[in-house]
Amino acid sequence: MTLLETSLWHGKIYLNGWVEGRGGILPVTEPATGSSLGSVGAATTEDALEAATAAAAAQVDWAKRRPEERAAVLRRAGQLFEEYAEEIQGWIVRESGGIPPKAQLETHIAANECYEAAGLPGHPHGEVLTSNEDRWSFARRLPAGVVSVIAPFNFPLILSIRSVAPAIALGNSVLLKPDPRTAVSGGVVLMRIFEEAGLPAGVLQLLPGGADVGAAVVEAPEVRIISFTGSTPAGRKVGEAAARHLKRAHLELGGNNALIVLPGADLEKAVSAGAFGSFMHQGQICMTTGRHVVHESIHDEYVALLAAKANGLPVGDPAQEQVALGPIIDEKQRTHIDSIVQDSVAAGGTLSAGGTSEGLFYRPTVLSGLSSENRAWTDEIFGPVAPVISFSTIDEAIDLVNSSEFGLSVGILGDVGLAMTVADRIHSGKIHINEQTVSDEANSPFGGVGASGTGSRFGGAAANIEAFTETQWLTMRPEIAPYPF
């Protein structure tokens, strides 16, 4: 039997086992063709609340398991991601519209996330403190309890597993609500992997559904922490709801990421980096290069070469042909992308390449001649669009980058010494010198500032332990302390 044998999960959610959701079913659709790939169950708010109660009960026993037992489950999960990589990749290609190398990256990182998380149970979980009293004093990290993970459509596997794996490894239980558009790649896949890895029933619950289910997994009384990845407007709502209920929310939100091309940079390599940063996975990445800040001495040639590169990239069904770009996830998102492009041209921008589509297949697009107030420059497009603006001085470049409300990822191409001085003045959660803006590793802290979120909360032992545990102060004396009462 394959990992994703549909008879196990077709039309179902996972609530202490595969059961029918009270909300009916959600269709699983291939964006490239519009074809049906199956269906998952639709959870309701009642399902979510019941799952939270069940997860809290399961968490008590899971947290008591020996560290080596929890680590073994995570190691086995990593092995299973490798064993079933090809099958999972097929679903990612068809369900998310990603090209095969993108799907291969997802399964590779998913395995690494599990291997990294497998080290967390044995990692030091506290420290010995000094004290002015005659006692021992400790700060220890304990599992938070129930963690809700709300994940998006664009990298459905990575953006789910990077929270699910460390949360489980540290002794928590998890409510997973994937985006309904990628409920298999971002939900069923994880559920089946952890089932096969030996995770006890109830520790991970799968709740595909809409905004009402998202609200329920935030507000459920048993939930202590919410890990949300998605748009900034949606993240604000999650953060507001979490604050009302006095819960921690780790918010990884949107980005309008800048790539600075310094004077003297290798143009051929810079254009290759810029094209990858803007067009990888149709620009549907929070780290996508959304702004190209290019020195005036090379601006015109950069635009011409980037446009030529865009015009030469094949677009089509990644499941049927070798292409560089697949489809946009749905019609709503395609319309959003095109409206920004058309508005920007109407406002005086120049369409140097692209700007057209067939169905959900949007051509890679280059915009130049923009003002810093142009919508293509200020908004997160979340599509294969590369807006370019020139700068004359380093101060001007830094001002252009820092003027955005977002602060997730910045790339700087060119002389390393100059790039280092620029990096020290940039407000961003991540900075990559002589790389484009799209980069992530399982052992590295990830997150943004400003409208891009609440800081680095994913990746690496320190960030993960901080994100998914609570600190408890513990003191100890050899005998009962004397008191004046």
Short description:
By secondary structure, the chain is of the alpha/beta class. The protein has helices at 6-9, 45-64, 67-83, 85-96, 100-118, 158-169, 184-197, 211-219, 232-244, 267-279, 299-311, 331-346, 375-378, 394-402, 416-423, 461-468; strands at 12-14, 18-20, 25-29, 36-41, 126-129, 136-143, 146-150, 173-177, 204-206, 223-229, 248-252, 257-261, 289-295, 350-353, 357-358, 361-362, 365-368, 385-391, 406-407, 409-413, 430-433, 449-450, 469-476.
Q: Layout of helices and strands, plus pairs?
A:
Elements: H1 6-9, E1 12-14, E2 18-20, E3 25-29, E4 36-41, H2 45-64, H3 67-83, H4 85-96, H5 100-118, E5 126-129, E6 136-143, E7 146-150, H6 158-169, E8 173-177, H7 184-197, E9 204-206, H8 211-219, E10 223-229, H9 232-244, E11 248-252, E12 257-261, H10 267-279, E13 289-295, H11 299-311, H12 331-346, E14 350-353, E15 357-358, E16 361-362, E17 365-368, H13 375-378, E18 385-391, H14 394-402, E19 406-407, E20 409-413, H15 416-423, E21 430-433, E22 449-450, H16 461-468, E23 469-476
Parallel strand pairs: 7-8, 7-10, 8-9, 10-11, 12-13, 12-20, 13-18, 17-18, 20-21
Antiparallel strand pairs: 1-2, 3-4, 5-6, 6-23, 14-17, 15-16, 19-22
Helix pairs in contact: 2-8, 3-5, 3-7, 4-5, 5-6, 10-11
Describe this structure in words.
By secondary structure, this protein is α/β, with parallel strands linked by helices. 39% of the residues lie in helices and 22% in strands. The chain has helices at residues 6-9, 45-64, 67-83, 85-96, 100-118, 158-169, 184-197, 211-219, 232-244, 267-279, 299-311, 331-346, 375-378, 394-402, 416-423, 461-468; strands at residues 12-14, 18-20, 25-29, 36-41, 126-129, 136-143, 146-150, 173-177, 204-206, 223-229, 248-252, 257-261, 289-295, 350-353, 357-358, 361-362, 365-368, 385-391, 406-407, 409-413, 430-433, 449-450, 469-476. The strands form 7 sheets. The protein has a 7-stranded mixed sheet with strand order 14-17-18-13-12-20-21, with helices on both faces. The protein has a 5-stranded parallel sheet with strand order 9-8-7-10-11, sandwiched between helices. A 3-stranded antiparallel sheet has the order 5-6-23. The chain is globular, with a radius of gyration of 24 Å. The mean pLDDT is 97.
